[in-house]
């Protein structure tokens, strides 16, 4: 009889690295200045939606299949024509330089190493081109806000194409900045450089011209028809980020979107909206296969990813989880987030009796009282 090394029998074979996502969150939060921590953790208003995003996951229970004969679960998939080693994209969180000087450049390198893809923010600390250069394999989707001068929007689409991105993510739930009590209480006023990677001081486009609308609300909000016309200028497919209703999902698809991101912006925009997860079934029904579906807002574990996919998402987007990884240990921290999400997903899928993430469906879930 050959002896099995003791290590292979351990619950944890990861050496001195972070063993859980909660450790990453703890280390990240402990290292941030309190106002930056509040900015990252917090939501809008009384944070009702922020709480709902988490509570929604507790109301689903798994219906496991046992004795399936299946091998190692396959977690690879594709989204917007982009292959993914795991069904996870990192969110376009702006002001990334507050969490780590390398910001989304580090996130993209971590994604490249772990098979995830970046949605790179317009309001980030580094230019789209710089993030693409840092990790072209992962920097595949660029995010824009539909506001300001349409000529600048068109110019940004050109920059995004030239930098080699494969798709665009348009944030439709942010015509003005949400009512963030925590930031107001803290008089939070970071250096504009953290959001001006794409619009550096002294450059051709002033930051105020692009993002001023978030605070002044002087211009009318764009319509779906205007967005559809303005997106027709690019050959790239696009996704509408911030869709919460069947009506908005249908409007996005009618305007030309190839995907919708079911999201309430992590509870940071309109407080009082439902959990994103709770809106997923109605949106999946409305879209009816005409577009792909991603979900963000509240994903904190591999188990959450499995639940979202079972309810109809093709992929998930992680915001704070990726930002905590970045704050905790830069590129290595984001990599560890992905590794732990993947390992946990594979555990859950094996216990659930699922061979591939593409086989997940509502038959693996049932509603329960929390
Ligand atoms: C610090 C921070 C900054 C963000 N900035 C943006 C942004 O500039 N544009 C945008 O569309 N979403 C932004 N978001 C929202 C995320 O893209 C995403 O929708 C949200 O974080 C998902 O929820 P989760 O944090 O619970 O995963 C930001 C989120 C955070 C935490």
TrEMBL record:
It is an enzyme of class 1 (oxidoreductase). InterPro entries: Aldolase_TIM, Alpha-hydoxy_acid_DH_FMN, FMN-dep_DH, FMN_HAD, FMN_hydac_DH_AS. One of its GO terms (molecular function) is oxidoreductase activity. It holds the Pfam family FMN_dh. Its EC number is 1.-.-.-. Keywords: Flavoprotein, FMN, Oxidoreductase. Belongs to the FMN-dependent alpha-hydroxy acid dehydrogenase family. This is Alpha-hydroxy acid oxidase. It comes from Pseudonocardia yunnanensis.
């Amino acid at each position: 009889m050959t002896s099995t090394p003791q290590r292979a029998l351990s619950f944890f074979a990861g050496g001195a690295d972070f063993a859980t996502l909660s450790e990453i969150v703890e280390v990240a939060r402990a290292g941030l200045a309190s106002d930056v921590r509040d900015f990252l953790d917090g939501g809008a208003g009384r944070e009702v939606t922020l709480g709902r995003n988490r509570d929604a996951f507790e109301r689903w229970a798994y219906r496991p299949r046992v004795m399936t004969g299946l091998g190692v679960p396959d977690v690879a998939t594709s989204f917007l024509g982009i292959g993914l080693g795991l069904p996870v994209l990192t969110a376009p969180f702006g002001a990334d330089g507050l969490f780590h000087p390398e910001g989304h450049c580090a996130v993209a390198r971590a994604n490249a190493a772990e098979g995830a893809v970046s949605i790179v923010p317009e309001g980030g600390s580094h230019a789209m081109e710089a993030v693409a250069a840092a990790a072209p394999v992962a920097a595949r989707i660029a995010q824009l806000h539909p506001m300001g001068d349409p000529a600048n929007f068109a110019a940004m689409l050109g920059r995004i194409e030239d930098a080699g991105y494969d798709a665009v993510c348009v944030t439709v739930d942010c015509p003005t900045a949400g009512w963030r009590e925590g930031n107001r209480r803290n008089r939070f006023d970071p250096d504009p450089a953290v959001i001006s990677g794409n619009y550096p001081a002294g450059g051709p486009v002033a930051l105020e011209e692009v993002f001023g609308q978030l605070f002044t609300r002087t211009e009318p909000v764009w319509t779906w028809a205007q967005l559809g016309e303005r997106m027709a200028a690019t050959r790239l497919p696009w996704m509408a980020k911030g869709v919460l209703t069947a009506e908005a999902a249908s409007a996005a698809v009618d305007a030309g979107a190839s995907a919708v991101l079911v999201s309430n912006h992590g509870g940071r925009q309109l407080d009082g909206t439902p959990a994103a997860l709770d809106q997923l079934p109605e949106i999946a029904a409305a879209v009816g296969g005409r577009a792909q579906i991603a979900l963000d807002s509240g994903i904190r574990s591999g188990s959450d990813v499995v639940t979202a996919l079972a309810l109809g998402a093709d992929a998930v987007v992680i915001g704070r989880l990726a930002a905590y990884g970045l704050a905790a240990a830069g590129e290595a921290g984001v990599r560890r987030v992905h590794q732990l999400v993947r390992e946990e997903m594979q555990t859950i899928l094996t216990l659930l009796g699922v061979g591939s993430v593409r086989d997940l469906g509502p038959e693996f879930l049932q509603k329960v009282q929390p």
